Input
Amino acid sequence: MRFLDFERPIAELEGKIAELRHLGDADGMNIVEEVARLQQKVERQLQTTYARLTPWQKTHVARHPDRPHCLRYIKRLIDDFTPLAGDRSFAEDEAIVGGLGRFRGQAVVVIGQEKGHDTESRVKHNFGMPRPEGYRKAQRLMRMAERFGLPVLTLVDTAGAFPGKGAEERGQAEAIARSTETCLDLRVPLIACVIGEGGSGGAIALAAGNVVLMLEHAIYSVISPEGCASILWRSGDKAQDAAEALRLTAQDLETLGVIEEIVKEPLGGAHRDPEAAMDAVGEAFERHLAELMPLSGDVIRARRRARFLAIGRQGLS
Output
């Protein structure tokens, strides 16, 4: 378990528990009661710490390297997953994973950004930062879903679209805009969940859904705190202040009406119990799919468009 800076007291307690267990195994000591006492103390400390996380601390939790990413969700929630590759125009982009599968008996198209879990996979998936061909692949899969009447589930987890020169030359902004337009135009249900980091247009290109969910400690913002600080204050040292100003937490965004539901995470964050976190997302997907599936395509599209227009009107008021 990798601990964040603000989790240092918890790390010390869990270190003592590990030491006691090692001593007990070596010397045959009965340390059950002491371990149980320390474990209760850890849980109390976790509850206290995670009940008052600052936006900057939530940003670190959302980026935790042990947090489950898109492929783990697909493996856990989607049966018979068949990945589909390529944008039929330029290339395959491994930062966006997508394909066909079955979610609790319902055929679906699932699309998401994959960050990777170690150095090799992170490089392979470009740290979850898609290029234009990734967004064009997403458009292709969404249109395929519409053609066959399949709902779309998206798993959003990206620091933002890849800002490299080649990506810009191949029309990064246009690809993001077209992907967002496709989301809004679909006549099948689209449910999005921000499972970690939802950064900028690179995130909304997959998240313009009928329902937008967020995990309890995920973040979703127009720019990263570091990027905002570098623009407004010309200093990365102000990232913490930027995180406060951006209103990027799930709790802020639910209040603002940007998301419909906060999916509760296990105590201490999704990285402490990935299976429970992924199952909670699955329950939310199932609940909202049951509500949307009986609706006609025109109603589904009209509701989705009305949802985003309402956010715009609220912002102007």
Summary: The chain has two domains: 5-52, 59-316. The radius of gyration is 21 Å. The mean pLDDT is 92.
